[in-house]
# Entry
Amino acid sequence: MTQHGIVTPYEGRQHGGWDPETPPPAPLALHRTTVSPAWVDYNGHLSESCFLLVFGDNSDAFFRWIGVDEAYRAGGHSLYTAETHLHHRGEASEGDPLRLTLQILDVDDKRLHLFHAMYHEDSGLLLATAEQMLLHVDTAAGRVAPFPGFLVERLSATRTAHARLPVPEAVGHVMGIPRKPPRSQAT
# Structure
C-alpha cells in the first residue's frame, strides 16, 4: 500500500512486456478488469469517477510496460497527468468485464499524448474514451524534465507502431453547446 492508501492493481509489480525485438502492438491491450460493486453508483452503473479510475489503471499498466514503476519513481521521476477529456459512450454494470486499449497519439521530449478506449469485453461495445496529456517530471526538482534515453526509444517505437492507426474521432473534441447565429434583422 502506498503512503496515501491508494493502491493500483499493478502496485509492486515489476515492469514487464517490453521486448525490443518485437514491434509494439497497435493499439496496446494491457489492462482488463471487472466492474467492482464499489464502483457502481445510485443508477446501478459504473460511477463517473470510476471511469477515470479504470483509465488510470490502464495508464499504470502502460507505464509498467515501458519501465515506469516504483523503482523508476524512487529514482526521482514520474509521469503526471496535465489534462484529461472523458467521453462516455455506454454504461457498465456491476460484474461487467472491461477491456481497455491504449494508443500513443504523439510524444516529444517531455510530453506524451495518449488515447484510451474502454470496451465491454463480451459485447465489444465501446463504453468510454479518454484522451490525456502527460508530462514527464523530475519530482525532486518539481519541474517538467526530458524523458531518459530508454523511454525515448520505447515511446518512439510505440508511437511509430501506432502511427498507422486512425486518429480516433474523439481526439481534440471541444466541448460546448452549439448555438445558431442570430438571424439578421431586415430593415
